[in-house]
Design brief:
Helices cover 28% and strands 21% of the residues. It has 2 domains: 136 residues, MutM-like, N-terminal (N-terminal domain of MutM-like DNA repair proteins, Alpha-Beta Barrel), CATH 3.20.190.10; 132 residues, Orthogonal Bundle (Helicase, Ruva Protein, domain 3). The chain has 288 residues and is α+β, with helices and mostly antiparallel strands. A 5-stranded mixed β-sheet has the order 2-9-5-4-3, with helices on one face. Strands 1-7-8-6 form a 4-stranded antiparallel β-sheet, with helices on one face. Strands 10-11 form a two-stranded antiparallel ribbon. It binds zinc ion (ZN). The site of zinc ion has 7 residues, from loops.
Length: 288
């Protein structure tokens, strides 16, 4: 599943690939992929719209178009946004899971592929706000990496305020998109390991220093993920395969039974709120 770094990678790829280009026509091959408005209006509204820039809020991709409208995308489990046909005279290849096809003015195509059809696209007309079109955007918590639009990112102080009084496991609090937006399972496990915090400790029970470390490490692992994602970009925008890159350098995620890279103890796994959590029982003490 694409996490924040993969989505950020897609956004950067889009900005590099489609700036200045425009949509000529839209073809929807799977109606479920369009969340708003109805398919006919979606296609009609996007025709001839010029791309301005793409950005991200949590795992939502917002592609601003001229005149104040936007194309919004959530990749969910298996969605991909790919620019095809950038070189040569060859007609762009069409994947098996192509759901929505945007014909571009440059002759290229922007493909929305989605094997499992959980991903969604929205068109935001200029007279509506993002939150009116996609209400769950309004519920998103702190954007962990500093972005101009959303304050200074995640700090220890902010994390402490968000987790204050919470008795749920710190791991599940990290995954709560209403508290911190965009942190998924892999990056939560990695950040907790690097901070020496056991995933089952109560979110509200950490010491000031631990909140500071954890906030810093959440930002560090996300940034590392973005950096390894960027290296796989060529002339297309990739929303998959980047997890794989990061996993190869993971400390604990997916390493159950393997030796801890710090102390050689076997990495353990527990289920927390239905998700597998990987940790080192020695480096991450249940209570400090
Ligand atoms: Zn260890």
């Amino acid at each position: 599943m694409p996490e924040l770094p993969e989505v950020e990678t897609v956004v950067r790829g889009l900005n590099a690939a489609i700036g200045g280009d425009h949509i000529v026509s839209v073809k929807v091959l799977r109606e479920d992929s369009v969340a708003f408005p109805d398919v006919a209006l979606f296609c009609r509204s996007l025709g001839q719209k010029k791309f301005l820039q793409a950005w991200r809020r949590g795992k939502y991709i917002v592609i601003e178009l001229e005149g104040g409208s936007s194309l919004i995308c959530h990749l969910r489990m298996s969605g991909r946004l790919i620019v095809k046909g950038s070189t040569g005279r060859k007609r762009a290849e069409r994947g098996r899971f192509l759901r929505v096809l945007f014909q571009l003015g440059s002759g290229r195509e922007l493909h929305f592929e989605d094997m499992r059809v959980f991903g969604r696209l929205w068109f935001k007309p200029d007279h509506l706000t993002l939150e009116e079109v996609v209400p769950s955007i309004a519920e998103l918590g702190v954007e962990p990496l500093a972005q101009d639009n959303f304050g200074g990112g995640l700090s220890g102080k902010l994390l402490q305020e968000l987790f204050d009084g919470k008795s749920q496991a710190v791991k599940s609090a990290l995954l709560d998109q209403r508290l911190v937006a965009g942190v998924g399972n892999i990056y939560a496990d990695e950040a907790l390991f690097l901070s020496g915090v056991h995933p089952q400790r109560k979110a509200g029970s950490l010491k000031k220093k631990e909140y500071e470390k954890l906030a810093e490490n959440v930002r560090a692992v996300l940034t590392m993920g973005i950096e390894s994602g960027g290296s796989t970009l060529r002339d297309y925008v990739n929303a998959e395969g980047v997890n794989g890159n990061y996993q190869n350098q993971a400390y604990v995620y997916g390493r159950t039974g393997s030796p801890c890279l710090h102390c050689q103890s076997a990495i353990a796994r527990v289920k927390i709120a239905g998700r597998s959590s990987h940790f080192c029982p020695r480096c991450q003490k249940a209570q400090n």
